[in-house]
Prior knowledge:
single chain, 3-stranded mixed beta sheet, alpha+beta, 10-stranded antiparallel beta sheet, 24% strand, HIT family, subunit A
Amino acid sequence: MSELRKDPIIDRWVIISTERGKRPNDYKDIMEEKRTQDCPLCEGKEKSTPPEIIAYREPGSRNDTPGWWVRVVPNKFPALGIEGEPLLQQHGIYQTMNGVGAHELIVESTKHEPGLDTQTEKQVEEVIWAWRDRSLDLRKDSRLKYIQIFKNTGPVAGASLEHTHSQLIATPLVPVDVIQELEGTREYSSRQGSCVFCDMIGQEIAERERIIYESSHFLSFNPFASRFPFETWILPKGHQHDFGQVEEEKVRDLAKVLRTTLRKISVMIKNIPYNMVLHTSPVNMREERHYHWHLEIMPRLTIMAGFELGTGYFINPTSPEVAAQALRETEEFYPLQDGSIKEVYRYV
């Protein structure tokens, strides 16, 4: 029988539909046509992008030239612009605000590859440092209230460029999804005297049904009320509300957990399209110490249809317990001497 599950953080229900249940091997490899256009993100194409904001590069190499390993540039087609003031205006019952903010693109590798799962742990660590460095720099601008780091992988997930990259959009408002999480964590803390995310981590570790991977500092698991097949969250096991405060030792550990998790997912279903978002506390506002930053990985294996759009409920045909078992049992790739990689185990 199908089951309704309530998200413990916000007032959102999910239907785990066992009637239309899908096992992990029901999701076929996603066949995506390789795009052969001249890639503006590859090394040697630096003049094809706006001038870089920062880059981690070889000593002595010049800006906007080869020699980098992570590069951050303004988005060529920004959703928001850095100029102006966020002025709120009333038009009858409607409100508008100037499109003030920042939109940046983090080029995650010199290699033309589609994801972080094929990078080394060190390279993933460098990408995370870029996220942190840009977050700390942008929060110096008092106009900005929230910094959203996200990654789209595959055309189905909205990626227009195949080359592995993530993005950052800083906004003058706190997004409604984050507001709902802040309100939920605040209410839970007032009622229970503890952090809902910390309690979630404790229960997941105790039950061990939905865990994918655990390290010293981070936990990767399929949440109890997963909205999507193979939806995965990565949380710091110690309470921390602000991603910008993550320490060096934990960045290294996060790189290992993130890379391992993404590799397991990509072995499970080749060419899997997904969106990844980093939720953290707002900036230039009161500190939300009851919050708990985390990464959400949302594979795009199902389509939201009329029921979901009309009700806000999600229907997930694969339970998180089944998904987590499959991912736990899925081994990673390992490198061969010729530099290629081999799949050593695939769940069936």
